[in-house]
Structures are given as C-alpha cells and as structure tokens.
Amino acid sequence: MRRLAPLLLAAWPALAxxxxxxxxxxxxxxxxAALSAEIQSLRGLAAEGGGAGAALGGxxxxxxxxxxxxxxxxxxxxxEELEFxxxxxxxxxxxxxxxxxxxxxxxxPGCDIGALGETPSLGGVDSAAVVPLPDPPPAQGxxxxxxxxxxxxxxxxxxxxxQGDFRGAADGFAAFVAAYPGSPLTQRAQIGRxxxxxxxxxxxxxxxxxxxxxxxxxxxxxxxDALLGxxxxxxxxxxxxxxxxxxxxxxxxxxxxxxVLDAQAEMRALACP
Length: 273
Known about the structure:
- There is one protein chain.
- The protein is mostly helical.
- It folds into two domains: about 80 residues; about 120 residues, Tetratricopeptide repeat domain (Serine Threonine Protein Phosphatase 5, Tetratricopeptide repeat, Alpha Horseshoe), CATH 1.25.40.10.
- The longest helix has about 50 residues.
- It is built from eleven helices and no strands.
C-alpha cells in the first residue's frame, strides 16, 4: 500500500483538475501518459505476487488501482473527443476565413483572386497534425525574444499612429510585418495597420489587416480587437451578414472581453438579427 496510497492521492485530484480546467490537449495527454506509466508499473508489481502484492494492499488496493485506471481511461476518451472538436472548429474557422478573404478581394480594386492561394490553417495549426507538447514557459520577468531594432521599428509605427500620421503608420506596420515574419508583435502590428487604414478611409484593406491579425493568433489577447475591427469594416463595406457573424463571434469566443459591449453596439447599429 506504500506505493499505491501516494499514487491515489496524486491521481484523483489530477483527474478532477484535468476535467475542470481548460488545459491544453497536450497538457492532458502528458498527464495521462505519466499516470498510465505508473499504473502499469504497479500492475507489474501486483503480477509478481508475494511481498510485492502485499505492498499494494491486497485485493482492496487492487480494486482502488482498477478504479483509478478506469477514471484514466475515461479521461483519455474525453481528451480524444476534445481534440476532435478542436480540429473541427479549426477546419470550419479556416474555411470561413478563406471565404472572407475571397469576398474582400472581390470588392477590392486590383485584387487578383487567383493569387490568394490557400488560406493558412487558423492559428497556424494544421488540424490533421498531432498537437505537440508545449514549450516550457519563459522565466519570470522575461519577454518574447525580439530581433535587433524590432521593438524600435514597432514603436516607431505605433508612434506615428498615435500622432495621427495614418499613412506613415500604415506603411510602418506593413514594413514591420514584412521585415519580421513570425514576430510575437505581428498581431498587434496588423491591428495597428488596420487602425491606420481606418483613419485613411481604406476600409477594404483595413478589413484585410484585421483578418490577418485574427488569423495570426485566434485565441491571443488581441484576437477580440481583430474580430471587432473586422466586423466594423465589413459593416461599412456593406457585407452586413458577414459583419453580424463576425461581431457575434466576439461575445461567443471571448465572453469576458470588455469589447463584447462594443461588438453588441455595432450589431445594434447594423440591425443584426
């Protein structure tokens, strides 16, 4: 019972926590693998019989071990179901983004529909790929790694936007995105570019910038800003049905965001159903 008792004490809270918290699929699978390995180790001890079986607490201990294993199997099934749902949402979201890109190109002068290419998977994740284990979090107090002059270039474009130099800001953010692909500031740069283009009255390109911002990180802290900006511009462009769907997604995806009220106000102005 000496080895079984600590396992049970650790396993039950872990199982309950995994079912209650919105952990990532990789986190859940990592915990499942660790518990499964320990259970198999204990079952090997039980199979040896004699002193090893007695150490597990006899029949009562084996029954409790079986109960933990059953709960673990149930959690595995839930993880697989969650992964299926995530993949389905990713595929559906990617298809919707592709449709929006096509419609924006239709109303944008000089846009070549044939040059659009394939829409990247939502959030940059291939729905058919195995979800990898997440990298360990950075040490406390450290920010994202930035290239030399990357922060300065971003702040320069941000300063132009704050001063009302919309053309300079739009060009600055566009240059930033081109110069630093994959930057942790990409989403903010695309949102800033969208705001600058809003100021210039270029609603079509502004909508595209917000769409690209949302595609860059569909669950990040600035994703609600991207959706709100996209919805607003679609409304101005006369794409009311798409605007209503996009604005509704702000509250659906990010119910705790303060931008939900802004999205609802935009929906009322558009007379969304």
